[in-house]
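Consider a protein example.
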Amino acid sequence: MSAQRPSVPVAAGSGHLRHEADDSGQISILMAGMVAVCVALVLGVAAVTSVQLSRIHVLDAADAAALDASDALALERAYGEGVGSGVPLTDATVVEAAGAHLAGRELPSRLDGWAIAPGTGTPDGRTAVVVVSGEARIPVVSSVLGAFGGGVTVTMTSTARSDLVP
């Protein structure tokens, strides 16, 4: 059983008794918890926003590289089969043109690096498919993720085709 606390009358004749409070410091713990939750929420929103912006940069690069690769004429196919209704492509010409485009493009500050990923090529000899993969740089969170051996990799696929009009 617990010992009973002494009671002190609040006002003479009111009949109300007050227990001496032993609650000092309780609000500090609550405030510390709320501040931790708010900081975690702000960092989480900043991280998600940063990854989304990184995704947009990678998508832009993939689109531009696919567009550049879609008119990378495969000379051996053009001389052998003719041009026809579209620019003839090979996997090698698509990878080479997309790689050259990325190499000549400035890396955005939100990314640690990017590269042409597997899957880049041409499925039908006329359409260029470019897959670009980049490592997102996330404020504050990147160092924490790096300590655990990982980061956030963003991979985007873009398709382009250059048709010829007679």
